Amino acid sequence: MDITSLIAPLFALAGTGPCLPIDTLPSLIKEPGRYCVSKDLQVAAEGDSGISVLSDGVSIDLQGHHISGPGEGLGNGVSGNGVKDVTIFNGSISGFFYGVRFQSVEDITLSHLTIENNIFRGATVLGTKVTVEDTVVRGIKGYREWPDSHSFGIEVTGPECRVLRNTVSDIVPFRAGEAVGVSINSTPEKCIVEENFIKLDQPHDQGRYIGIWVGGRGQPDSVAKNVIVNVDYSVAYTRLSGLAADNWIHERCADGWNSTPEKIDTFKSENHVLQSGRCSDDIDYLSQKLKEEPDAPQWYLRYATAVRQKQGKVVALPSYERACELGAEEGCRLADIYQKQIDAGK
Q1: Which one, of 59, 151, 62, lies nearest residue 98 by Cα?
Q2: What sign does the CA torsion over 125, 28, 58, 164 have?
Q3: How many Cβ atoms from other residues are within 10 Å of residue 88's Cβ?
Q4: Whether the Cβ atoms of residue 142 and residue 121 lie closer than 8 Å to each other
Q5: Where are the beta strands (DSSP E) in 195-260?
Q6: How far apart are CA 63 and CA 70, in angstroms?
């Protein structure tokens, strides 16, 4: 029998004791306890994950070491499903599909990590009572096998989250997808997003660049004191009102994508906003891009969305259909949705 499985529960109950070593990858953690990465470790096989957490009550100290993947495939750096009370801190993770991925979890903390050069997501945690703090996320390049895929730095879905003092940069979408620095979604009640530095400093020749996305039902407690630089939209939201304040912003487009002019005026009055550069959702700009690249589906998709926001779905529908004809699956999906809404008189 593995000695680790015998002594780990004792350390978990005591709350103290020496770390149980992680000295090879892939590694499965099946018992609660304190674990330490003993050296730089690498996953060689495409698709393999690094550390999989299968138990509640786990603390993983990377001790300044680096966990790296092969740079391709669908493996995760550190992951778990259905667990609670897990902390990961003090090291770096790179070369995976997701740097960190947890689903259906509770009480998860990511702290003092560097999550860089992963493919699809930096850190994604779906659950309640999630904390991501003092962490650097950078170098998310987008997944090329999914048309118009989105790239996220930090993605938290669920209530009672805290996203604090993180630095997010170099997040790039694929084609007409979106690059998002920080996303809180689904039910973001009692969430706090504060003192993060988000700089999406890449050529904005495709996709949208969004600093903070607030989606789903409900509102967070606070989106404040963040610095958001070189984005199309600083804070994209549908229900956020009066809770985004004292952010320092440099952006290209109107604040509050999918919001109303009244909310945009309120947003500008409560934050420090500098707008410069041409908005990539400007209809005239997108019309010119269509002339330059008439067979590029991403520009039809972008143009359709800009037209829908300003002129309505009936006017936008032919452009969604053209994007679909040119191979944009998102264009097909949206064309079908809006056609059904038009047919229903909505």
Answers
A1: 151
A2: negative
A3: 27
A4: no
A5: 197-199, 208-214, 222-224, 227-231, 233-237, 244-245, 248-251
A6: 21
Q: Can you name the residues that pair with 201 across neighbouring β-strands?
A: none
Q: Is 18 helix (H, G, I), strand (E, B) or coil?
A: coil
- Give phi and psi for 127, each to the nearest 5: 170, -165
Q: Which residues pair with 209 in a beta bridge?
A: 179
Q: What is the pLDDT of residue 329?
A: 83
What does the mean pLDDT of the chain come to? 86
The total of structural domains in the chain comes to 2
Do residues 236 and 171 share a domain? Answer: yes
Residue 174, token pair as written in the block: 């694929």
Range of the domain at 335: 283-343
Q: Which of 275, 305, 333 is the last residue of a domain?
A: 275
Same domain assignment for residues 7 and 33: yes
pLDDT, position 328: 82
Helix (H) or strand (E) holding 284: helix 283-292
What is the C-alpha separation between 229 and 307, in angstroms, rounded?
26
Band (281; pLDDT cuts 50, 70, 90): confident
CA dist., res. 21 & res. 28, Å (int): 12
DSSP output for 103-160: EEEEEEEEEEEEEES-SSEEEEEEEEEEEEES-EEEEE---TTSTT--EEEEEEESSS
What's the whole-number mean pLDDT along residues 81-104?
97
**C-alpha to C-alpha distances, 10 to 15, 21, 102, 129, 212, nearest whole angstrom:** 9, 15, 25, 26, 42
3-state helix/strand/coil string of 36-95: EECCCEECCCCCCCCEEECCCCEEEECCCCEEECCCCCCCEEEEEECCEEEEEEEEEEEC
Q: Which amino acid is it at 289?
A: K
